[in-house]
Amino acid sequence: MSELILDRVVKSYGKLRAVDDLSLEVRDGELLTLLGPSGCGKTTTLRAVSGFVPLESGRIFIGQRNITEIPPERRGIGLVFQNYALWPHMNVFRNLAFGLQLKKLPRETIKERVEAGLATVKLSGFEDRFPRQLSGGQQQRVALARALVLEPDILLLDEPLSNLDALLREQMRFEIAQIHKQLGITSIYVTHDQTEAMVISDRIAVMNQGKLVQLGTPAEIYSFPSSKFVAGFMGTTTFVHGRVVQVRGERITVRSDSGLSIHGIGRQLSDGDDVDVAVRPENIRFLIGPENGRARGKENTFEARVTRASYVGELIDYQLDLKGSLLRAKGETAHPLAEGAAIRIHIEPQQLSILKV
Ligand SMILES: Nc1ncnc2c1ncn2[C@@H]1O[C@H](COP(=O)(O)OP(=O)(O)O)[C@@H](O)[C@H]1O
Ligand SMILES: [Mg+2]
């Protein structure tokens, strides 16, 4: 079993706690993403796991093995960085073979492993090329293959796609996810890009200021963010401020500052709590034509005004004024609404997260 366990890991630089009491369990074969803004401690966490920074306190295990005091080269961990870090004076074959030669593996085994590694990243036949003769995407594949040929128990990837252009990044996301599925190596993937995290991860650990703030599947974190920070970080979200006026299990009713009665879902809330209602653009439904008449008086049906309409290709990106709160919404290009138009909207209570301020 190669699950990876971080138990209350702390690492400071001077007075700054870069990793602050982080406990995390990456399951055997899982790809878990550390997601958070720049500076939140993602790289420091990976460096702690790989053994390049000593812990201030806490422990790290791979399966039953306590690796806290074990030097990096004996941890069985493969690393892939943002900047590839290939050796420029070595061709692809030697870049991949180098670590295997250090392990004193037989020549035939090395050749087989290098060939298999290149096949995995779809670069068979590139053995003789030098890094400068490869595109950024190809260099990153070589870097990945170089980590894989060592057959690590754990794979750590630190923003491996952030130097690539947008189109290639999107394509490589799927490839990395597929390679992970194929090999089933327990992996931590680091990114600050929420879409990338959603596509690639079995689970996501959202970090802020060195701390773990939420852990869950992409769908759980997207649909039920535990805080305004997570909601704001996981895609476009706008907020309506108010107070809780009724609690029925997880069904919460809020009275907004502007006097609207809003129904949504929330946890661990009580009457009178100061809250933000998190509204996702795609959950706002425009009521047009006969639907509009039927919806009058129904719960979570509101009057709003279009304050901005931007055509962004496959849809229109709207800004709406909901009694003083600005919301973002998405609309079909087939039924464009003009700026200034009055409109009735509906939001399913199930799709509104009520978050404590
Ligand atoms: N070697 C270092 N010396 C001092 N401070 C550092 C060092 N490495 C990182 N930090 C600080 O620790 C915090 C976390 O950094 P890092 O782990 O690189 O964040 P992330 O990878 O999430 O962007 C940041 O505030 C950063 O400035
Ligand atoms: Mg980093």
Please give the structural blueprint.
Blueprint: E1 4-13, E2 16-26, E3 31-35, H1 42-50, E4 57-62, E5 65-66, E6 77-80, H2 92-102, H3 107-120, H4 136-148, E7 154-158, H5 166-183, E8 186-191, H6 194-200, E9 203-208, E10 211-216, H7 218-223, H8 228-233, E11 238-248, E12 251-256, E13 261-265, E14 274-279, E15 285-287, H9 290-295, E16 301-311, E17 316-322, E18 325-331, E19 342-346, E20 353-356
Parallel strand pairs: 3-8, 3-9, 6-7, 7-8
Antiparallel strand pairs: 1-2, 1-4, 4-5, 9-10, 11-12, 11-14, 12-13, 14-20, 15-19, 16-17, 16-19, 17-18
Helix pairs in contact: 2-3, 2-4, 3-4
Bound molecules: adenosine-5'-diphosphate and magnesium ion (MG).
The site of magnesium ion has 2 residues, from α1.
For the structure shown, list the relevant keywords.
2 domains; 9 helices; alpha+beta; Rossmann fold; OB fold (Dihydrolipoamide Acetyltransferase, E2P); binds magnesium ion; 357 residues; elongated; five-stranded antiparallel beta sheet
Share of helix, binned: 25-40%
CATH architecture of the largest domain: 3-Layer(aba) Sandwich
Q: In total, how many domains does the architecture comprise? A: 2
Number of helices: 9
The biggest beta sheet reads: 6 strands, mixed
Class based on secondary structure composition and strand pairing: alpha+beta
The CATH homologous superfamily name of the largest domain equals P-loop containing nucleotide triphosphate hydrolases
What quaternary form is this?
A: single chain
Give the overall pLDDT as a whole number: 94
CA distance, first residue to last residue: 41 Å
Under CATH at level 1, the class of the largest domain stands as Alpha Beta
Overall spatial form:
elongated
Radius of gyration: 25 Å
Instruction: Determine the strand fraction and express it as a percent band.
Output: 35-45%
- The strand order across the widest sheet is 6-7-8-3-9-10
- The CATH topology of the largest domain is what? Rossmann fold
Total beta-strand segments: 20
Give the SSE order as H and E letters: EEEHEEEHHHEHEHEEHHEEEEEHEEEEE
